[in-house]
Amino acid sequence: MKIAIFGMGYVGCTAAACISSQGHIVVGIDVSTKKVDAINAGISPIHEPGIDELLATARAEGRLSAITEVGNHLDDADIAIVCVGTPSGPDGAHNMSYIVQVTRAIANAVKPDRTTPLTVAYRSTMRPGTTDQIIGPIFRSALGDAADKVVELVYNPEFLREATAIEDYFHPPKIVLGTVDGTPSVNMEALHHGINAPIFHVGIREAEITKFVDNTWHAVKVAFANEIGRICQNLDISAKKVHEIFVSDTKLNISPYYTRPGGAFGGSCLPKDVRALQHIAADVGAHAHLVDSLMRTNDAHKHHQFTYVTQHLKPGAKVLLVGLAFKAETDDLRESPAVDMARKLLETGYDLDVYDPALTPDNLIGQNLGYAYAYLPTINSLLVDKETAETGDYDLVITTNRLAKTLSLKSGTIVDVSAIA
């Protein structure tokens, strides 16, 4: 099949690499010439293990290309996949401007005399009802009565974790395919052929809310664990032992993955989707007080960690922060708790170095670039290499993820904020 993918960020780039590796022809479409040029050179515009190799192979074998304008590429395409960003707006709701822009571009590019429908599958996280209330009307406005005949609308949420995105793409926990009437999409089933996972054929709105439910639940687990961790720490109780007891109950407590007291939640998904679900709940009068508390308790935990690690440290002390991205093996700084930690350390007057081998400031693009320089405008001068990190004379070393295991640290008190003991 020929697949057009709109948006070459983490989700779109991963999809392009994985889908083209299955033998499909993929055209990536993005307004960023930097991303397009990188892909056409066989280089990934994102830092994600394994993506470079897949993109380079697909590009060399002629299965992958990238462009900035859709042109006539939809004429012979079977599927268009939309992976553009839906960042948080001022009120917490998702900013849908990119969805609207891309939908208009697709609607204007689709020929009303197509003999087979173009499957337009959305993977961007968006409010339930978006397909009915925004996307569908745009297609009907552009194509009139032909819209329902030449376009098949699908919502297909992704379940990718950064740093394990390729593994997650080919081995997802589930496949959710939402269609207007809840019936299977032939093209989307073909796209997922060979991927062994439970498939849910549901209505559009059931599919649209899936990521909100999943991501908010993950956020609930992290916040709950950290509240318990703070209580235990302040009462001189071993949170590690309490956690050991808690997760032994796999019958009722489900999974230990998000329930270990440690780092605050961050990244590009959980914070923005929690804010959006807060907005939705308030909008419909659901009074979701636990959800309302999540961002506040997460901010409280970030402040708690800062005061905890610096309680015996005087301003001016030399500090090494190991890991700035929200997760090891990625360069995603968006809403990373470590960025907040770095900002607080600098504002309080500490002499800060940062070690994160996945980060190269010149390679940061899009929302990731904007977030990095908005909160850490001196990021270029903060980053140090491995040798400096290992040999520097530091009063305190703060580790935020498993990157610390790759270093032979020789100085300073080491505090791991990703796990409260």
Automatic annotation (TrEMBL):
Keywords: NAD, Oxidoreductase
Domain UDP-glucose/GDP-mannose dehydrogenase C-terminal: from-to ranges: 320-419
EC number(s) from the headed UniProt entry: 1.1.1.22
InterPro entries in the record: 6-PGluconate_DH-like_C_sf, NAD(P)-bd_dom_sf, UDP-Glc/GDP-Man, UDP-Glc/GDP-Man_DH_C, UDP-Glc/GDP-Man_DH_C_sf, UDP-Glc/GDP-Man_DH_dimer, UDP-Glc/GDP-Man_DH_N, UDPglc_DH_bac
Enzyme class of the recorded protein, top EC level: oxidoreductase
Catalysed transformations (reactions): UDP-alpha-D-glucose + 2 NAD(+) + H2O = UDP-alpha-D-glucuronate + 2 NADH + 3 H(+)
Name under which the protein is recorded: UDP-glucose 6-dehydrogenase
Membership in a protein family: Belongs to the UDP-glucose/GDP-mannose dehydrogenase family.
Record's keyword annotation contains Oxidoreductase: yes
Taxonomic placement: Bacteria, Pseudomonadati, Pseudomonadota, Alphaproteobacteria, Sphingomonadales
PROSITE patterns xrefs: PROKAR_LIPOPROTEIN
Pathway connected to this protein: Nucleotide-sugar biosynthesis; UDP-alpha-D-glucuronate biosynthesis; UDP-alpha-D-glucuronate from UDP-alpha-D-glucose: step 1/1
Keyword presence, Acetylation: no
SMART domains: UDPG_MGDP_dh_C
Residues of the signal peptide: none
